[in-house]
Design a protein that fits this description.
This protein has about 450 residues and is α+β, with helices and mostly antiparallel strands. The chain folds into two domains: about 260 residues, no CATH class; about 140 residues, Conserved hypothetical protein from pyrococcus furiosus pfu- 392566-001, domain 2. The protein is built from 15 helices and 21 strands. β9 and β10 form a beta hairpin. The chain is globular and about 65 Å long. The two termini are about 25 Å apart.
Length: about 450
């Protein structure tokens, strides 16, 4: 089912680039304006110049961000800044990190990088778990057309309770890493190379019957599908375009961490905290809590309360600044089955579903199309950052979530059911630039 292969990765020339940390980046959709400026300053060869080039006021079809990205990429190849691996390989990839909000809690997430044949979702080999937005896919498709390279990795999960695949990979990991770097979040990323044909064949065979769930990179996967179809439409055989680069991680590993993604509501013509709570009480038990003084003084305690409430049933938080803070728990007498009778039971009690269907749509009157177009909604991983946005007047309300359990991600994805966009935040992110799948790689 999952047809994976080794590939010859395009990578930075270690003889020319001595500090790998100066050229790799977080995934393009996680790069803020401040991060982009920092990446630009860190090295003239930082990959941000290709994946998130700067837009100029005088851009035109002959000189725009995509043309400049393509020229930059080709120049680096011609100048041996980027080199092609001499042999096809599978690349074991470990990430050692501290769990955010839990000082001293260390985890290691183990995976491996390979290429995988693209499959339409209808084939039920690769399963999405989130809905996507159109704008990022359009941008990525234009970049893919001019560079013919997949710079970012698609993070997929596969089920292997016995850990057979992980063991096969671990047995063949060389003593010396192929690449190692610590990122700005103090995550240690280590990559090795496995080139032995026998070892690769065993890993490929063990993955052949696996179903894959996209954890991170839905937009990148759907962009790859669109580019595959674009190439097919041109009636030219392009086997390289039939595949995409992925990092494969065992679903049962203890190294997985999912963080919540909080919702910031803005642009409502009229928002009143008291009215919001009044309407919420018809659905939720509402507990108003103290939130005086600096956010750092009470945020951790509130998030702990939210986590405890989530163990007993659906719950989320609401914060509107100036001491307006509440914990919302689904009422025991609320007829959820009737209210969400269009949804299967596996979705009906998920916090993120209730937040979207009941809080956003029913109470705040934000329709799904507005959510898809991000007209009234933005997303923030850190509550303190979201609170700061409210203090600056950039948002009217923050709705706070607990993490979506990985079991819910798996079960719904395999059943063909998707969650709202930004329902999960798998941490840490896979670095961009450690390995690139270049479709025009010389054979």
């Amino acid at each position: 089912m999952a047809e994976i292969r080794p590939f010859r990765a395009l990578h930075y020339n270690r003889a020319r680039i001595h500090d790998l940390g100066s050229v790799v980046t977080q995934p393009y959709d996680k790069i803020s304006t401040e991060m982009q400026a920092r990446y630009y300053a860190s090295s003239p060869y930082n990959l941000v110049r290709v994946i998130r080039g700067q837009v100029h006021a005088d851009d035109n079809p002959q000189n725009n961000v995509y043309v400049r990205a393509s020229k930059c990429f080709r120049d680096w190849i011609d100048d041996d800044i980027l080199l092609t691996d001499p042999n096809p390989a599978i690349y074991p990839y470990d990430q050692e990190y501290e769990v955010p909000g839990r000082p001293g809690t260390k985890k290691v997430r183990r995976g491996f990088i390979a290429v995988c044949r693209l499959e339409d979702y209808s084939a039920r080999v690769v399963h999405p778990h989130e809905q996507t937005l159109s704008a990022p896919k359009t941008d990525r498709l234009e970049l893919l057309k001019v560079t013919r390279a997949h710079f970012g990795q698609i993070f997929v999960l596969y089920s292997d309770p016995a850990g057979l695949v992980e063991s096969l990979v671990a047995e063949r990991i060389p003593d010396q890493p192929w690449g190692q770097v610590t990122d700005e979040y103090q995550t240690l990323h280590t990559v090795w190379r496995i080139t032995e044909r026998e070892a690769i064949n065993k890993i490929v065979a063990a993955m052949a019957e696996k179903q894959l769930v996209i954890a991170d990179g839905h937009h990148r996967y759907e962009t790859a599908l669109a580019y595959r179809d674009y190439c097919r439409s041109r009636a030219a055989s392009d086997e390289a375009a039939e595949r995409v680069m992925m990092t494969f991680v065992r679903m049962e590993t203890e190294g997985l961490t999912i963080l919540p993604t909080h919702r910031l509501v803005h642009g409502l013509p009229a928002f009143d905290w008291s009215d919001f709570l009044l309407q919420a009480r018809s659905i939720f038990e509402v507990e108003e809590l103290p939130a005086e003084g600096e956010v750092n003084g009470w945020a951790s305690l509130f998030l702990e309360s939210l986590a405890r409430a989530g163990l007993r049933g659906p719950a989320f938080g609401a914060y509107a600044g100036r001491g307006k803070l509440a914990l919302l728990r689904l009422r025991g007498d609320y007829d959820l089955e009737s209210a969400l009778n269009d949804l299967p039971s596996t979705l009906r009690r998920l916090d993120v579903i209730l937040l979207h269907r009941l809080a956003l749509e029913q109470i705040l009157r934000i329709d799904p199309q507005a959510v898809r177009e991000e007209r009234n909604l933005t997303y923030h991983r850190e509550f303190r950052g979201a609170a700061a946005a409210i203090a600056r007047g950039e948002a009217q309300l923050c709705l706070l979530l607990n993490p979506t359990p990985v079991q819910a991600v798996r079960d719904n994805a395999l059943a063909g059911l998707t969650l709202p966009q930004k329902s999960t935040d798998f941490y840490p992110k896979l670095l961009t630039g450690l390995a690139t799948y270049w479709l025009d790689n010389p054979k």
